[in-house]
Amino acid sequence: MQPIEFQPIGLIHSGYKEKFGIPRQPGLVHSIGATLELLPPYGNRESVRGLEMASHIWLLFLFSECVNKGWSPTVRPPRLGGNQRIGVFATRSPFRPNPLGLSPVRLDGIRFEGDRVLLDISGADLLDQTPIFDIKPYLPYSDRIDSATFELAERIELLDLPVHFSAQSQRCCDDYQARRQQPLRRQIEDLLRCDPRPAYQKKQAQRVYGIRLHDLNIRWSIDQEQIQVLEIQPISD
What we know:
This is tRNA (N6-threonylcarbamoyladenosine(37)-N6)-methyltransferase TrmO. The protein has helices at about 140-145, 165-180, 185-190; strands at about 10-15, 35-40, 55-60, 75, 85, 100-115, 115-120, 130-135, 165, 210-215, 215-220, 225-235. By secondary structure, the chain is mostly beta strands. It folds into two domains: about 10-145, Elongation Factor Tu (Ef-tu), domain 3 (Beta Barrel); about 165-235, YaeB-like fold (2-Layer Sandwich). The strands form three sheets. Strands 1-2-7-6-3-8 form a six-stranded antiparallel beta barrel. The chain has a four-stranded mixed β-sheet with strand order 9-12-11-10. The N and C termini lie far apart (about 45 Å).
């Protein structure tokens, strides 16, 4: 079979600036929005006519950070503690023969700015500048399967821990919300309760982590009793 080439139809503009910290599945964090910008010649009003009637859409995307990094027939999913290997096709690992992902996201609105077509979305698990290959409306009557099961992942696993902010971190959240109209404190809480730590580090209670969100570096730690946001500092590229 001859190689098949696809061109991206759009790019994601997201607050997730690096792979670490992105929720491992879509739909876990709705407080952090993103925008899909359609690229020429796909970015025109006709191509999205009627899409405003959909509350949710499917996005077919490229795991752009994993291109040319190879794949293995088996992987170690974080949900299994990073110790047990299962087949790559039984996981959503980004290291695949073809590094493609599929995410359902909420469509919050469609905007037209000059020649630009912008789709505002939420619940996305997509790195900034992720290439998008296709958009399809989510059809509740066929895409939702109430009888579906998967024994390895039957439920959402979120941390039920209080999140404490240092005085400096809280001031930064207040300032950021006033300047950017972003609910930064809620975004950080939602993100950290998804527990972005690698499985092999979850017993290292004294470790301090850093996550880049928007244009900020967020330093935090976690133990069995609480999550602590220690410091928030701006990042200048």
